[in-house]
Design a protein that fits this description.
Elements: E1 2-6, H1 10-22, E2 25-29, E3 41-44, H2 46-54, H3 58-63, E4 66-67, E5 70-74, E6 80-85, H4 87-93, E7 98-101, H5 102-110, E8 118-119, E9 124-129, E10 135-139, E11 144-147, E12 149-152, H6 159-164, E13 170-182, E14 193-198, E15 202-210, E16 213-221, H7 233-240, H8 246-253, E17 261-268, E18 275-276, E19 279-281, H9 284-287, H10 296-313, H11 321-347, H12 353-362, H13 365-376
Parallel strand pairs: 1-2, 1-12, 2-8, 5-14, 12-19
Antiparallel strand pairs: 3-7, 4-7, 5-6, 9-10, 10-11, 13-16, 13-17, 14-15, 15-16, 18-19
Helix pairs in contact: 1-5, 1-10, 2-10, 10-11
Length: about 375
């Protein structure tokens, strides 16, 4: 059985690598003509790291990332509101979360995938279900590919999903986000720490991703589709976060303006079905979430793990693997989408910030830790 994977983001690459490890026949199609060092950082929680360990690439990722040993939500001056050491997480799973440049992770995954199975400059246009039971994909350059199954890993604005389920809708959170990677070294005392600072309807988060590199994001309320005038982003952010700890100013100033990105924060309104016939949606194409839980990439990576194992263990070609995949994954993913949406809204409350902060500061650490452990657990296939 041959699989066509559309999209070579983190989810598509991990799926290709998982198929490669399981001996599943596939070809991977990506719209960009070449892979460039773009993007910012990504946090890989223990559920994602378990998958990469399963795929034999954890050592390479560990060597090119920064370990996170503490997760802190704080006031603008960096005083903690909620502070969660990761010692017990490391004891249970063998590692905590790791922070890495997205382009570095992409490059590490690409090295493990044979070049002849990756097709660049192939922007998806449409699919057609053939009478033979196969699916034919047409790309914008009018070339075509035929496979037994189609895996859509083409992101929150998935063209495959739009054709398969035209009633599906993305949702704008009312928040826009700037991201960047700063040429900056954090003080030794916080090198292993993730901070997210909550101000008056604005947020700023950061962590070390490598020696001399800090990944950061800044979130504020705004109308959808707004853009910064060229050359103004850095000064705009410096004004927005002028009341935050001076470290924030240093991080922003150490970031080349050309490497600052702005995107509205959206997710996908949960859909009932992730598959139809021989087509299946994975990652953001099927269940895009806001980034507030740090789980968007991790859930796509989990998808690759579950789908590849279910395909490899299918007893016959007619077994409905996609239905089993959705049954195993949907409850967990929908819970993360919902919680992430709620957390994002709560972080930008106009009123009740003091009560919110008090509740967060008094939340039992054991309860928070248990919720993390539940989120990080994945099934074992034997």
């Amino acid at each position: 059985m041959k699989y066509a994977i559309i999209g070579a983001g983190i989810g598509g690459l991990t799926t290709a690598l998982a198929f490669e490890r399981k001996g599943i026949d596939y070809q991977l199609y990506e719209r960009v003509p070449e892979f460039l060092e773009v993007g910012a950082g990504i946090w890989l929680a223990p559920n994602a790291l378990q998958v990469f360990e399963h795929l034999g690439v954890l050592d390479q990722i560990s060597a090119n990332s920064s370990e996170i040993n503490r997760i802190t939500i704080g006031h603008p001056d960096m005083r903690p509101i909620s502070d969660n050491p990761q010692d017990n997480i490391k004891q249970l799973f063998g590692y905590t979360s790791k922070a890495i440049h997205r382009a570095k992770l992409q490059a590490l995954l690409l090295k493990e995938i044979p070049e002849h199975k990756i097709h660049l400059g192939k922007s998806f246009q449409a699919f057609e279900q053939l009478s033979t039971g196969k699916v034919q994909v047409t790309f914008e350059d009018q070339s075509q590919a035929t496979a037994d199954h189609l895996i859509a890993a083409d992101g929150v604005n998935s063209k495959v999903r739009q054709q398969l389920f035209p009633a599906s809708k993305t949702r704008y959170t009312g928040q826009t986000c700037w991201r960047g990677v700063s040429a900056f070294e954090l003080p030794d005392a916080i090198k292993g720490r993730v901070y997210e600072l909550w101000g008056d309807q604005v947020r700023f988060g950061f962590s070390r991703i490598a020696a001399g590199q800090v990944y950061w994001f800044a979130v504020a309320l705004d109308q959808a589709g707004q853009k910064d005038a060229p050359g103004t982003t850095q000064q705009k952010l410096l004004r927005m976060y002028a009341d935050f700890n001076p470290l924030i100013k240093q991080i922003i100033q150490a970031t080349p303006q050309a490497r600052m990105m702005r995107n509205d924060i959206i997710d996908l309104k949960p859909i009932r079905q992730w598959h139809q016939g021989n087509i299946c949606l994975i990652g953001d194409a099927g269940h895009a979430t806001t980034p507030n839980m740090g789980q968007g990439g991790a859930q796509a990576i989990e998808d690759a793990y579950y789908l590849s194992n279910l395909i490899a263990k299918a007893k016959n070609p007619q077994q409905n693997v996609f239905a089993d995949f959705q049954k195993r994954r949907q409850k967990k993913v929908n819970g993360i989408v919902s919680q992430s949406w709620t957390t994002g809204k709560m972080a930008h409350w106009k009123y009740g910030q003091g009560i919110r902060n008090f509740i967060l500061s008094k939340a039992p650490k054991k309860l928070i830790e248990q919720k993390m452990i539940e989120m990080y657990q994945i099934d074992e296939f034997v």
